UniProtKB/TrEMBL annotation:
Example GO molecular function: glutamine-fructose-6-phosphate transaminase (isomerizing) activity
Stretches that traverse the bilayer: none
Role summary: Catalyzes the first step in hexosamine metabolism, converting fructose-6P into glucosamine-6P using glutamine as a nitrogen source.
The organism's taxonomic lineage, starting at the top: Bacteria, Bacillati, Bacillota, Bacilli, Bacillales
Record keywords: Aminotransferase, Cytoplasm, Glutamine amidotransferase, Repeat, Transferase
GO cellular component term of the entry, any: cytosol
Name of this protein: Glutamine--fructose-6-phosphate aminotransferase [isomerizing]
Gene: glmS
This protein's record includes keyword Repeat: yes
E.C. no: 2.6.1.16
EC category name: transferase
Top-level taxonomic group: Bacteria
Natural source organism: Peribacillus deserti
Length: 362
C-alpha cells in the first residue's frame, strides 16, 4: 500500500524520519533564506515578537520540550523574556499576563486540542498568536494570527523525531532574525552553524550500530532508566525519557543533574541505567560530579558528551556544534537509543499502545 512505498526500504517510519533530519535542517535553511542568502522571517512576525514584552510558548509533549529549548534561544539571542507552558495546565491555570504578551503555539500536527483550547482563550482576550507547525492549513495555523512552517515533510511515526529538531531550528531562525533587527548581532552565523549541525546529525545517523549496542547493553532487561543533564542537556534528557517511555514502555524520567540529591537518587539501585548528557561547557564538571554520585550507588552510567568536552569514560562523543544548538544534535542518540530499545523489546515502534499521532481531545 501507499504507506509502505513511502517507508521505502526502512523497517519503520521512526527510523526513516530520524534519518531525514539532516535533510530537513538543510531544507529549513533554504526555505528561510532570501535571495542574498540571509535568513528572513515575515516582517509582521518579527514586529509582533519585537513589540511583545513577554513571550508565552504553549505546547504539549515533544513540542513542549522543543519550546524549552526555544526559550533559551529567544532569551539568549534576542533578549526577550519567555515562559514555556504545558497547554493542558495553562488552560485553567493562566499566569498573570503582562500588557503585550505574544503567544507561540508549537505543534507538529497543528491539531492538538489542549493547545487549541489555549489559543481560543487567548484570542478571546485579544492577544496575538503565532503557530509553528508542520501542517499548513491545520486548525492551529488557521486560527492564529501568524504561522511559521517546519517544512519537515509528513511525520507518520507516533514518536516525534524530525518535527522536534525542525521546531528548534525554526525557533533559532526566529531568535536570530529578531536579534539582528534589535541590534543584537553577536557574530553568530546561523546559516553556517545550522550547516554544521546537519553534518553532525549525519555522523550520528551513520552510527546506528553504536546506539543499537548501547540500547542492547543498557536497556534490554531494565525496568527503568534515568536521563540527567544540566541546562539544555536537561531539556534533551526530558525528551530522551519521553521517547523511551512511549515506544519501549520502560519507565524513564529526565532530571536536572543538581536535583538528584533532593530525592531521585533514592531510586538508584545496582545496575540502574543513567544516561547523562554533557554538551555544555559551563556545567560539564558538575554533571560529571552527578554521574559519580549515582555510580557510587551502583548505577550503570552512559555518558554522551560533545567533542571538546569529552573524557575517557564517555560512552559516545557527538561532533562539536555551537553550544546553543546542541539539542539538535544530542537528541539524535536519544531517538536512536529509544528506537533500538523498543526493537529489542519487541514493541510496535511506529504505533505504541495507548497513543495517537495527534491528540484531538482535551
Ligand atoms: C511525541 O513523541 C509525542 N507523540 C507527543 O508528545 C506529541 O509531541 C504531542 O502530542 C504534541 O503533538 P503536536 O506537536 O502535534 O501538538
Amino acid at each position: 500500500d501507499a504507506s509502505d512505498i513511502e517507508k521505502g526500504t526502512y523497517p519503520h517510519y521512526m527510523l526513516k524520519e530520524t534519518d531525514e533530519q539532516p535533510l530537513v535542517i538543510r531544507k529549513i535553511i533554504q526555505k528561510y533564506q532570501d535571495e542574498e542568502g540571509n535568513l528572513t522571517i515575515d516582517q509582521e512576525i518579527v514586529d509582533a515578537v519585537k513589540s511583545s514584552d513577554r513571550i508565552y510558548i504553549v505546547a504539549c509533549g515533544t513540542s513542549y520540550h522543543a519550546g524549552l529549548v526555544g526559550k533559551q534561544l529567544i532569551e539568549r539571542m534576542a533578549g526577550i523574556p519567555v515562559e514555556v507552558h504545558v497547554a493542558s495546565e495553562f488552560g485553567y491555570n493562566m499566569p498573570l499576563l503582562p500588557e503585550k504578551p505574544l503567544f507561540i503555539f508549537i505543534s507538529q500536527s497543528g491539531e492538538t486540542a489542549d493547545s487549541r483550547a489555549v489559543l481560543v482563550a487567548v484570542k478571546e482576550l485579544g492577544h496575538k498568536a503565532l503557530t509553528i507547525t508542520n501542517v499548513p492549513g491545520s486548525t492551529l495555523s488557521r486560527e492564529a494570527d501568524y504561522t511559521l512552517l517546519l517544512h519537515a515533510g509528513p511525520e507518520i511515526a507516533v514518536a516525534s523525531t524530525k518535527a522536534y529538531t525542525a521546531q528548534i531550528a525554526v525557533l533559532s531562525i526566529l531568535a536570530d532574525v529578531v536579534a539582528k533587527t534589535r541590534g543584537r548581532a553577536d557574530n553568530l552565523n546561523l546559516v553556517k552553524e545550522l550547516g554544521i549541525v546537519a553534518n553532525a546529525m549525519e555522523v550520528l545517523c551513520d552510527s546506528k550500530e553504536e546506539f543499537d549496542f548501547i540500547a542492547r547493553e543498557y536497556l534490554s532487561f531494565t525496568r527503568n532508566c534515568f536521563f540527567i543533564g544540566r541546562g539544555l542537556d536537561y531539556y534533551v534528557g526530558l525528551e530522551g525519557a519521553l521517547k523511551l517511555k512511549e515506544i519501549s514502555y520502560i519507565q524513564a524520567e529526565g532530571f536536572a543533574g543538581g536535583e538528584l540529591k533532593h530525592g531521585t537518587i533514592a531510586l538508584i539501585e545496582e545496575g540502574t541505567p543513567v544516561i547523562a548528557l554533557a554538551t555544555q561547557e559551563n556545567v560539564n564538571l558538575s554533571i560529571r560530579g552527578n554521574v559519580k554520585e549515582v555510580s557510587a550507588r551502583g548505577a550503570n552510567p552512559c555518558i554522551i558528551s560533545m567533542k571538546g568536552l569529552d573524557m575517557e569514560e564517555d560512552r559516545f562523543v557527538i561532533p562539536a556544534v555551537h553550544e546553543l544548538l546542541t539539542p539538535l544534535v544530542s537528541v539524535v542518540p536519544m531517538q536512536l537509543i529509544a528506537y533500538y530499545a523498543a526493537l529489542h523489546r519487541d514493541c510496535d515502534v511506529d504505533k505504541p499502545r495507548n497513543l495517537a499521532k495527534s491528540v484531538t481531545v482535551e
